[in-house]
Amino acid sequence: MKNTNQKIITLLFIFPLLTGCWDQKLIVDQEVINGVSFDLEDNKIKSTIVVLNIIPKGTNFFDFKNQMSSATGYSLEDTYRELRTYYTGPLTASKSRIILLGESFAKKNLNAYLDFFYRVPDPYLGSKVAIVKGVEASELLSTKEIGTNPVAFGLYEIIEAAEDNSTVTKGTLNTLFTYFNEEGKDFLLPILEKKGEDILVSGAGLISDNAYSGQMISLKECSLLLLIMDNYGELVDLETYLNDKKKLNNQVSYRIIKSKRKFNLTKDAAGKPRVDINLDLKIFLHQYPITEKISPKQIKELEETISRDLTKKSQSIMKKTQKANSDVLGIGRELKETDPAAWKALDWGQTYPEIKINTRVKVAIEKTGILK
Amino acid sequence: MAESHNEFLSSDLTQNLKIIEEKMKQTADLKRRKLTFHGEAIILLYLDTMTDKESIELHIISPINKQESKSIENALGTKQFSIMTTFKDISCSLAEGNTILLTENCNIAYSIATLSDEKRAINESLNEKVTMGAHDSFVESAATNISLLRKRLRTPEFKVEYQTYGSETNVEVAICYLESKADPTVLHSIKSRLEKIKNDDLINSRQIQEALEDYPYSPFPQSLRTERPDRAVFNLLNGNTVIFLEHEPSALITPISFYSFLRSPEDYNSRWFVNFFYYSLRLLAFIMSVTLPAFYIAVNAYHSAILPVSTFYTLKLSVLNVPFHPLIEAVMMQIVLELLKEASVRLPSAIAQTIGTVGAIVIGSAIVQTNFISNTMVVVIAITAVSSFVIPIGEMSTSMRLMGFPLIFLAAIFGFIGIAFGLMVFTTHLVKLTSAGKVYVEAPEIFESFLNKHPKNGKGQDTNAHE
What we know:
The complex is a heterodimer of chains A (372) and B (467).
Chain A: H1 2-19, E1 31-41, E2 44-56, E3 62-73, H2 76-84, E4 91-92, E5 98-102, H3 103-106, H4 110-119, E6 128-133, H5 137-141, E7 145-146, E8 149-150, H6 151-164, H7 173-180, E9 188-195, E10 198-208, E11 211-218, H8 219-229, E12 237-241, E13 251-267, E14 273-287, H9 296-324, H10 331-338, H11 340-345, H12 348-351, E15 356-367
Parallel strand pairs in A: 1-4, 1-5, 5-6, 6-9, 14-15
Antiparallel strand pairs in A: 1-2, 2-3, 7-8, 9-10, 10-11, 12-13, 13-14
Helix pairs in contact in A: 8-9
Chain B: H1 2-7, H2 13-23, E1 30-37, E2 40-47, H3 53-66, H4 72-75, E3 81-84, H5 87-95, E4 98-103, E5 109-113, H6 142-152, E6 158-165, E7 171-178, H7 184-196, H8 205-212, E8 224-226, H9 229-237, E9 241-245, E10 251-254, H10 272-301, H11 309-319, H12 326-346, H13 349-369, H14 375-390, H15 394-414, H16 416-432, E11 434-435, E12 438-439, H17 446-451
Antiparallel strand pairs in B: 1-2, 2-4, 3-5, 4-5, 6-7, 7-9, 8-10, 9-10, 11-12
Helix pairs in contact in B: 2-5, 6-9, 10-14, 10-15, 12-13, 12-14, 12-15, 14-15, 15-16
């Protein structure tokens, strides 16, 4: 008994001495990747990372500096190996805020490339993913700061704000993974654009079969698409021209208070899937160019104008998604769930652009603000 | 016969006196007074340093001098006395502060209780303070302490047993319990354990505590030492036993459960949700004081991935120029803290204030400015210290703080796995612990204990309310 105890105690001492501390990563030593971007350059991947260094300037004061470096290679791991050599400590992606994809890179099969982020535990799955349009993705990272935030944080917050304002669907690296592995549903990625020195979210990019289709929904139409998807953010503001003339101050704008979507998947005579979407919106009028009492009759008219306008817009949006072959509504998934036989018989990639999607929006004005 | 001659008093007064003085090793504070009572010589013997001279004067000397009564027994009528015949009894009795009265031609002696009763007045408890509730605390006299309990427990069920311990110290130990509530088997085991130290010289209650503990090597105290009568009474009513050692201003309560250490008598004096809040706060403090530094080290050295990005950069900023490993930082800071605490306890109160200044300004802020220890580590250790001070019983509070040390080392070597392993060992140990044969830790019935305490007479149900 005593002998066994002795052995156990010796082992307990030896194990920590042999193995302990080997995976220690002190906070001081760590170099934290904040932003990553991928571009395609002469058929090679160009990875760029930005590491935020904090420089203390006495108590309570500090400055920061972005250290940016790029590497090219045939795979992500290839480039990462080179990138590691640029930094003084072990690199960690556990705090990465943003992953930017160059337009050309995004058109590749994202699933296969981003796989790198899912296999190891280190990368932060809460990072936002966005497509950069117009310029190279790495160029966006070279900006020092957005507002007062370091670039990666600024981009993260821009996208988060866009999500709240219902420009794009809420999404992170984590939600992307679920989409990658789900047949019959595509998704949206925010599109970032550089306008002068400023960076903005200019719309939502339509992803088709895990690759960017090259088509996007513009900023003004995004909110309506999200309403149709029934996946909107905290604020949904829309506007409609009062009549066909596009002139100054001729718009009524409103906020969606409540939205109810009816999604109906049926088969048409030819056996093709057919989708009817009915959107019931309760709105709060927050801008109406005529400051006067709006009579019930006018409200009726306004409701009709808005309904007509939104119906028309929604039709054109759905056409766009069909053109991009991006099934963001998950109609394919719905079909797969409700009618597996039909789903198997169809090649969804070819069917989706051709099916009939019928949308109808009905608007009821609930409030007109403190002005009657 | 030679033996008995030495053992028993003879009728020869001078011979007796000589033997007694010899027995008392001719100590200088043994005084004698010579009196006459109805023509017979009387000798009073007492230890000058222990007896109450006024009482001797008033109750022994003056009645004898008045010669009113017929016999000595009558003269001593007002005073409690006993009759002794052996020298051994006499010398013991003298050592206990009694006065021995010897008469000529008589082979018996009277031992009269004249112990000077120099007691500290009942003061407010220094170590277990409350804002609400009784403010009295135990003093260095078992009799007074028991009277404090009796005042609260006016029932014949309250039973006190005295026993004397130690061949040299001869100190009295009082075991108190409620006959109707105490578990006889537990009581029996307590008594039999105390029996084992019958001949040891008891000086402090730690010795009793040690004898009573099932696991003397455990870091956790298994009997509660309190200064507060209300706490003792509360435990008596729960069927626990209270043990007093004469000259010790505290009661030992056994068996006791772990959760009692997290309780203050004030809790039972407050509204149920206040009670609940503070109890939960102390549970939290217990967990924090044991694990917080270890947790910080593990996060710093291994698991920074779990930190939100803003916290990460705040941390990084604070540790950026610190040359030490977080483990060394933590150990250094813990030692500094223990030093400060120990210094402030040992120093006279007038100088102790200096320690506060030294601690706060010199060590607290200078150590950070010189980049020896990071700001966060100072915060972590300070929170640990404060949460351990929240625990109402000092013994437990120190145990908790010191228990953090093994966890700190485990965290530095293995990270979270080390902490989990350490806590597993602690929990296994705690669950196995018993106090006087009773389970030390049970499932914490936090909600149960409070649900039962809901005010029973709600709105309109109290008939007296309408009068």
